[in-house]
């Protein structure tokens, strides 16, 4: 028996949801990027200590949809509200509260969520305390009674978030084992690592076109035998395939090498990774293809 709480992290794209999740569970689970549609899944991260187990739901950033995929991602974020004991609305210290933020708050209100706290992210980017105080007052005007700030240069702020969640926790049976940090399988993490590296190099050229499928993931208990991972990187147009492969296949080699190195670090095991490139015509606007891509 522990203190249990399910916490949804919600906000616009690039407000720091994935960064906060990774920090709280002390693991690089979610992709971190400055771009829209980086997080495409409702990813669960698990925090454990001697007294508590908290389940964090990292949601796709809510944004104005330009295609069917965008609409599906927004729906995933709204659905997470229904599973929550606590909702954390994230807002960056270095930005102004806009229509997008107010729309999300309206959806939270419609979901009749009882427990909502405001999290001002990226406070280490603001050196003027008056500016931070102004952000706090803006959130208070929007109805927040409890507001916290977090920043990479301030480790204590993340401990404060954990301590705050304890105020909303209740006695219950643990849903996960002590050593679990997520409920997603290793092949999902592998997929996200490949997509993260592709986005890192090609976001400007292929902003929302990239999807990854892991076609084979063979584990090995023997240290000297690497995991065998076969993957396909999809784009939505034939003209994008050459961009992803690159001259002399240099781009796909760079993506694959960096992804493999990160997998080996996270999995603590040698990895053999083979990534091929295919076209899935206009998959971002085809409901059947979106489901096939796992969204």
UniProtKB/TrEMBL annotation:
<feature type="domain" description="KH type-2">
    <location>
        <begin position="202"/>
        <end position="281"/>
    </location>
</feature>
<keyword id="KW-0694">RNA-binding</keyword>
<dbReference type="InterPro" id="IPR030388">
    <property type="entry name" value="G_ERA_dom"/>
</dbReference>
<comment type="similarity">
    <text>Belongs to the TRAFAC class TrmE-Era-EngA-EngB-Septin-like GTPase superfamily. Era GTPase family.</text>
</comment>
<keyword id="KW-0547">Nucleotide-binding</keyword>
<keyword id="KW-1003">Cell membrane</keyword>
<keyword id="KW-0699">rRNA-binding</keyword>
<comment type="subunit">
    <text>Monomer.</text>
</comment>
<feature type="region of interest" description="G3">
    <location>
        <begin position="58"/>
        <end position="61"/>
    </location>
</feature>
<dbReference type="InterPro" id="IPR015946">
    <property type="entry name" value="KH_dom-like_a/b"/>
</dbReference>
<keyword id="KW-0963">Cytoplasm</keyword>
<keyword id="KW-0472">Membrane</keyword>
<dbReference type="InterPro" id="IPR005225">
    <property type="entry name" value="Small_GTP-bd"/>
</dbReference>
<feature type="binding site">
    <location>
        <begin position="121"/>
        <end position="124"/>
    </location>
    <ligand>
        <name>GTP</name>
    </ligand>
</feature>
<dbReference type="Pfam" id="PF07650">
    <property type="entry name" value="KH_2"/>
</dbReference>
<feature type="region of interest" description="G1">
    <location>
        <begin position="11"/>
        <end position="18"/>
    </location>
</feature>
<dbReference type="Pfam" id="PF01926">
    <property type="entry name" value="MMR_HSR1"/>
</dbReference>
<feature type="binding site">
    <location>
        <begin position="58"/>
        <end position="62"/>
    </location>
    <ligand>
        <name>GTP</name>
    </ligand>
</feature>
<comment type="function">
    <text>An essential GTPase that binds both GDP and GTP, with rapid nucleotide exchange. Plays a role in 16S rRNA processing and 30S ribosomal subunit biogenesis and possibly also in cell cycle regulation and energy metabolism.</text>
</comment>
<dbReference type="InterPro" id="IPR004044">
    <property type="entry name" value="KH_dom_type_2"/>
</dbReference>
<feature type="domain" description="Era-type G">
    <location>
        <begin position="3"/>
        <end position="177"/>
    </location>
</feature>
<keyword id="KW-0342">GTP-binding</keyword>
<feature type="region of interest" description="G2">
    <location>
        <begin position="37"/>
        <end position="41"/>
    </location>
</feature>
<dbReference type="InterPro" id="IPR027417">
    <property type="entry name" value="P-loop_NTPase"/>
</dbReference>
<protein>
    <recommendedName>
        <fullName>GTPase Era</fullName>
    </recommendedName>
</protein>
<feature type="region of interest" description="G5">
    <location>
        <begin position="149"/>
        <end position="151"/>
    </location>
</feature>
<feature type="binding site">
    <location>
        <begin position="11"/>
        <end position="18"/>
    </location>
    <ligand>
        <name>GTP</name>
    </ligand>
</feature>
<feature type="region of interest" description="G4">
    <location>
        <begin position="121"/>
        <end position="124"/>
    </location>
</feature>
<dbReference type="InterPro" id="IPR009019">
    <property type="entry name" value="KH_sf_prok-type"/>
</dbReference>
<keyword id="KW-0690">Ribosome biogenesis</keyword>
<dbReference type="InterPro" id="IPR006073">
    <property type="entry name" value="GTP-bd"/>
</dbReference>
<dbReference type="InterPro" id="IPR005662">
    <property type="entry name" value="GTPase_Era-like"/>
</dbReference>
